[in-house]
Amino acid sequence: MDPVLVRADAGVAEVTLNRPEARNALNLPMCTALREIFADLDADGDVRAVVLKAGGPVFCAGADLKERKGKDETWVRRRRLASFAAYETIERCGKPVLAVVDGPVVGSGGEIAMSCDFVLASGAATFRFPEPHWGTIGATQRLQRVIGKRRAKELLFTGRVLGAEEAARLGLVTRLAADGELGTLVAETVEAIVAAPPLALSLTKQSVDLGEEMALSTGIRIEMAAIERNLADGGWRRGVAEFADRIGE
């Protein structure tokens, strides 16, 4: 069984973590599949948006520690590098990538979700980062960038479970769906994304990501370069015309 499934329709790719029998625990084949799939989606001109979700009731139960039994330090180091490569490939995908969480997220699952552009979740979503309690290290970088250093330390040090509402308040979850409405929220969000001109959307994502840790003056130069590239394409005229038509209706 493939550890990750991908299906594309009408410009939207749906990527599904597919190890429900293992609570979608992240193992080496899943790391490799995620890296390859997102590299392909990034290069696919027909894909306008990507939805990353999970099969089964658990989004991801963290790293699959069972596969480390009998392995030496060299194997574990390479396995961790494979997971970092998977997260980075998701993060660097030029298409908008949204995670859909409808159940528990643990450890590496949080890294996967935080590698996406944002997270939509139901009230069933929970988050936990127990790496230090498992005798390992993880989530020390993305988590603090999402929720702040002190909050990240508290979650990592205690390993406590974070409920959906608190996750939304802290910024791990971008939008929290009402009961039974997650599917509707996802559909509406994807519809809004694919309505935007793809080049403008891609350049917007790139500008936000590149400017995140830059001084404002440098960030403005990044945005100006994106504007120039967008103007050179010429597609902006169609976007302006379509917007004017909608306003006039």
UniProtKB/TrEMBL annotation:
It comes from Amycolatopsis minnesotensis. Gene3D superfamilies: 2-enoyl-CoA Hydratase, Chain A, domain 1 (3.90.226.10). Coiled coil: none annotated. Signal peptide: none annotated. Pfam families: ECH_1 (PF00378). InterPro entries: ClpP/crotonase-like_dom_sf (IPR029045), Enoyl-CoA_hydra/iso (IPR001753). This is Enoyl-CoA hydratase. Transmembrane segments: none annotated.
